[in-house]
Amino acid sequence: MTRPPTAAQRRVIDAADPVTGRLRGTEAQLAALVKWGFAFRHPRPPHDHFLTPAGHRIREAGEPGTPAPETEATADSGVFAARVGGEEEPPQAGPARGREVRSAWQGLLELRRMTNPDGALDRPCGWERAHLVQAAALALEAAGHRPAGADLVGYRVRATPQPEAVAVHEPDPAALRACAATLEEAGWQVGEHNDPRSRARYLLASPRRA
Fold this sequence. Notes:
Elements: H1 7-14, H2 27-35, E1 39-41, E2 49-51, H3 53-61, H4 95-115, H5 126-130, H6 132-142, E3 156-159, E4 166-169, H7 173-185, E5 188-194, E6 201-207
Antiparallel strand pairs: 1-2, 3-4, 4-6, 5-6
Region (Disordered): 50-72
C-alpha cells in the first residue's frame, strides 16, 4: 500500500511541470518517489523522472481542506490551465498567454514522445487520457480557436458520461468543423452529433489509441 509522501517529497511533487509531470529534485528524493509509486524514471536518455497517475492524484488533491489545483489555476497562481470555454474569470489574452499556450503544447508533445511506447507524437498519451477536458482544450487553444466567453460565442469543452470522451460545443457550424479538424490532427477520434433537446450540433471526441 502506498504511504503518503513526506513534506519534502510533497514539495517535489507540487513543483512538477503542470503539463508533463516532469520532476526536479535530488537523486535521493526522486528515488524515494519511484520507490513509493509516485514517480517513474523514463528508460530513455536523459532518464528524467515523471509523476505516475498516483503522483498526479497527490498533486491535484492538494492539502486536506484546500482546493485542488484545477479550481485555482488562474493567471496569478503560476499554474497553467487551458481555457475550456465559459470560465467566469478567464486568463488574460495577449502575447504572454500565447507564449504560455505554445509552451504547454510543446511540453505535451514532449510528454507524448517520452511516454508513448513508440514515442509517437500524433497520438495522445496517458496524461491526456487522465485529463480529457484539459487536453482537448489545450489542443484547441494552441491551434488558435476562440474559447467561449460570457456570451458563449466560441468553443466549450465539457466532460461526458462516456469513458474517454469529451463534448465540444461551438455555435458556429464552420468553427465547429474547424475544431473537429484540429482535434483529428492532434490525434483524437471525432464524431459530430445532434443534441437531442436543442438539436444543436456538437462534437464527441476521444483520444485515438492507434
